[in-house]
Amino acid sequence: MTGPDEPHVAVDDDRPRLLVHLCTRDEWDTARHAGHREPPSLADAGFVHLSDPGQVHLPANRLFAGHDDLVLLVVDSTRLDAPVVWEPGMPDDPEGMRFPHLYGALPAHAVVEVRTYRPDGTGTFLPPSI
């Protein structure tokens, strides 16, 4: 992990402008009313987990198997107030894959769309088309 004081990538030619964050509908409702989302990872690890839309199925399957109450918060990375650092995920993720970590609260104004995110008939989350 490099941390927020190291060079970061919020938006460039190699990184997507739209990122996603997984949470429940109730968690999003709470965040929307508060004006920001501060999941437990912000206090525990110092960052909010985000994903590229093409990789979000990996943490969804790892962390949320059996859930059918998730939403994808589609985040415009140009609206974020804190640094985004692309860092390695889990050892079983594809080699070289990096995940965006937001080193601050996720502001509600950066969320440009909220989508229901459910597993398919076999219980597997698939990459969404965003």
From TrEMBL:
One Pfam family of this chain: DUF952
Family annotation (InterPro entries): DUF952
Protein name: DUF952 domain-containing protein
Organism: Gordonia hankookensis
